[in-house]
Description:
Elements (H helix, E strand, L loop, with lengths): L11 E6 L2 H9 L8 E4 L7 E4 L1 H4 L9 H7 L4 E3 L3 H15 L6 E5 L2 E5 L4 H4 L2 H16 L3 E6 L2 H11 L4 E3 L5 H6 L11 H9 L5 H5 L3 H8 L1 H11 L15 E12 L2 H21 L2 E12 L4 E12 L2 H15 L6 E13 L15 H14 L22 E5 L4
Parallel strand pairs: 2-4, 7-8
Antiparallel strand pairs: 1-6, 1-7, 2-3, 5-6, 9-12, 9-13, 10-11, 10-12
Helix pairs in contact: 4-6, 11-12, 13-14
Amino acid sequence: MGHRDERPSEPILHVDMDAFYAAVEARDDPRLLGRPVVVGGTGGRGVVASASYEAREFGISSAMPMRQALRRCPSVAVVEPRFDVYRAVSERLQQIFHTVTPLVEPLALDEAFLDVGGSVRLLGSPVDIAARLRASIADELALRASVGVAPNKFLAKLCSQKAKPDGLMHVQRDQAERFLAGLPVSDLWGVGERTAERLASAGIRWVRDLRLVDEHALARLVGSAAARTLHALARGADDRAVVSNMAAKGLSAEQTFSSDLERTDQLHRALLDLCDRVARRLRRGGVRARTVTMKVRDASFATQTRSRTLAVATSEAAELYPVVTELLSTAWSPPTPVRLLGVGVSQLVAVDAGVQLDMFTASRWEHAEQVADRVRAQFGDAALTRGALLGRDRPANQAPARDDLSRRPG
Length: 410
């Protein structure tokens, strides 16, 4: 780096917490320190949401069925997830990020991109800032973070992955191509298992191999758009900017059931619960949604999705629910056993973005929803629920739910 007033060559940081959920649980329960720990559902279809590094030594990983994890390590400590706690820790984490730069782009509860190019004059080099962040996270949250420092987002995220656990990696701009050359193509963003197999069938296993392939020839293997992207990434090129306060592209909530559901009334109750969760998150984020998506997965793992775009954006479960139940009727018929249901929304707009409302169709539920939000904020989520969700017929065989905040590819 030259003069401190100049923008540094490697201004992008990717901060990624190490085994976030499991680390929070071990921090809050000292009996778990140093032990194999997994966070996730304990039902018949529970999955691992997070695994400590001690658990990973047994081959346990995120998204693994809990039964498989227990077979690999019978002594592993299984902890039910506490998402409210994780969100609270994440909010404090975001505050720490903003002590070094306003340009923070969260990707999930436990990771974010930061552009510290404007902070070097006061705080030192990007590597100094990265070290400062790691120390602050350790001191204030008693958690570990890995950080990548690089010229762009792709390289910064790759560096943080290589630095795990509890590390810091810096790749300089003029060393990027050399750094990438010896890596497998699976390290490139967008190269999943199938794409990697397709490339390997053509003798392309390493990034250095990919650079030797003509883009048109590569397009015949992966398509023209993917070929352009992979050629750029193989050279370390990525022009995406860090976008602060970026609105989520969509919100979703899913529920996997410990035993399959077959009755329409059971599925409708589950969908109402999912709509309620999604709507509350929309209101909490100060946004409304235009497009609604319903997902249903049957016992054979066949998955169907249906979507509809609304005339007026909404953040109310009472308006989402009739849409998703109608979408369900086009994708499922009883008594087909259902393993999973999901509700998602997209095309988000800010509440104050001037959404046009029809005076004759304005929702009578809006005030009630707002009052319910205030009650839950004060007394907890369990303090208030919908009458339709009470009673013996509400699905009681739910594995831990999963809520997602979908953002631009990181």
